[in-house]
Every structure is written in C-alpha cells, then in structure tokens.
Amino acid sequence: MSSTTARELREEVRRRYAESARAVTEGTGECGCGTGSCCDGEVGEALYDLEQRGELPDAAVLASLGCGNPTAVADLNEGETVLDLGSGGGIDVILSAKRVGSSGRVFGLDMTDEMLALARANANEAGVGNAIFLKGVIEEVPLPADSVDVVISNCVINLSTDKAAVLTQIARVLKPGGRVGVSDIVAEDRLSPAERAERGSYVGCIAGALSKSEYEEGLLAAGFEDVSVVFTHEVADGMHGAIVKAVKTAT
Ligand SMILES: C[S@@+](CC[C@H](N)C(=O)[O-])C[C@H]1O[C@@H](n2cnc3c(N)ncnc32)[C@H](O)[C@@H]1O
Predict the structure, then answer these.
(1) Ligand 1 pocket: which of 1, 33, 111 to mutate (most atoms <8 Å of CB)?
(2) Strands 210-211 and 148-154
C-alpha cells in the first residue's frame, strides 16, 4: 500500500468514527451501521451480557462498535495494567478498569478526538478513576516498553494500514510474559485480499481483515507464543468475528 493511500484510508476511518461518536453524543442514532459508519456484521452491545451492560453508562453501550467482547476472554486480575487499542466510546476500558480495581489502571488509545471526548465522559459517569485515555495511533503506541500486562482491542486492528507495526508495538509495550486478547474480524485463508474487499468496505472492518494464517504468522514474527485465532461467528461469506490470543515470550 502506498503511503498516500494509507494516509487517505486512515483519514477516512477517522472521519467515519468521529461521525459515529457525534451520533451518540448528539443522540441522533447508535453508530450508523446502516450507513457503513462502523464495523459491519454482528456488532456492539449485543456482545455484552446484561450484568456487564448494567455496569455501564447508556452512552458507552450505545457507542459500542466492537465485533466481540475482549474483556470476556482476557482474564484480568486486580492490580494489572491494561491497554485497549482503539478504545472508541470506552466500553472495554470501563469494564477492564472495574476488573483491575484501584491498584490497577487501564489505558485507552484512540486517534479520534470525538471518541476520546465521549470515552472520558463515559468513564466519569461510570465513576472509574483508573482509566486514562490517550490520543495516538496504534501503529506508534505512546507508552514505554515493558509497561503493560494485558493488551486488548475490539474490532480495530483490521482498520490499521500497517498491521505488522501494530503487532510489533503490542510486543514492545507488553511486559515479558504479558498477554494479548483481541476481538477482530478475520478472513478464512482461502480468501484473497481482493475477495475480502468484495465482501465489505475497509471502514466497515471487512476489506482490511487479515486471514487466520496471516494473523498467526504476524504474531509469531512479532515475538509471541501460544498463539490462537478462533472464529466465533460468521459476518460475511468466509469472514468471521474471531478471538485472537497470544503471550509475549518471557525472555
Ligand atoms: C470499530 S471502532 C471500535 C471501538 C471500540 N473498540 C469498541 O469496541 O466499541 C474503531 C475505533 O478505533 C479507532 N481507530 C481506528 N484506527 C485507529 C488507529 N490506527 N489508531 C488509533 N485508533 C484507531 C477509531 O477511532 C474508533 O474509535
């Protein structure tokens, strides 16, 4: 991908998700899925159980644009430091902040100002004091090396124009032995990039999806072990919501 195309795509993604945040803030709709403003397929609040939804402000639930529930797979413990890549309206940051308690902290990283404003308001309303929202891109995480126990993310890595950089950054910020537990859209290996693009748009989380083996190989190359990519639900022919897990090698 040329650098101009990558820049343009990132700007298109930013614009679409700014629009989704505004729709929630102004009460004009959920996320505009029908208009292609967020990930296509099964998305959002339906992926969280009633108990979790009860812990959240309405706007955080409405702003949920994920394709899974990383907090259900990441197994968080008291006192841990968590990083959510592409934190959107803050739903997974708030749930994680409650799990790690006051001795832990959770960073939410997002490039879209409107999402960051919505997430900060939601975290305040939820009364969590251990959530910190950072502006930046997931290809260049603004945190020191070896500083995070767990990286989560929900339907964001497929939107990156440089997935190798994202996986390298996850490996850099995790402490040795740290875990990654991500929900994402993943393609079956039989689909070429062109066939993936026929099934949905880039901003709709389909065209930019990695295949299962591309994800596995990318994680291994970045320094992870115990890599697994498990499909959970089909969102288009050969394209699935998936849970991606791996552990940073301890050395
Ligand atoms: C599909 S939404 C998911 C939001 C949230 N994870 C959730 O489950 O509701 C994608 C989010 O990722 C952010 N995003 C997309 N690409 C990004 C990038 N390269 N760097 C930082 N944030 C990004 C968008 O601004 C948006 O808030």
Answers:
(1) 111
(2) unpaired
pLDDT value, residue 153: 97
CA of 102 relative to ligand 1 center, distance in Å: 26
Dist. CA 231–CA 239, nearest whole Å: 9
Ligand 1 midpoint to CA 251 (Å) = 31
Report the nearest-CA residue for atom 27 of ligand 1: 88
pLDDT at 35: 39
pLDDT of 43: 60
- Show the low-confidence residues of the chain (pLDDT under 70): 29-46
What is the rounded distance in angstroms from the CA atom of residue 38 to the CA atom of residue 89? Answer: 12
**Distance separating alpha carbons of residues 57 and 203, to the nearest angstrom:** 26
Amino acid at 187: A
Confidence at residue 32, expressed as pLDDT on a 0 to 100 scale? 39
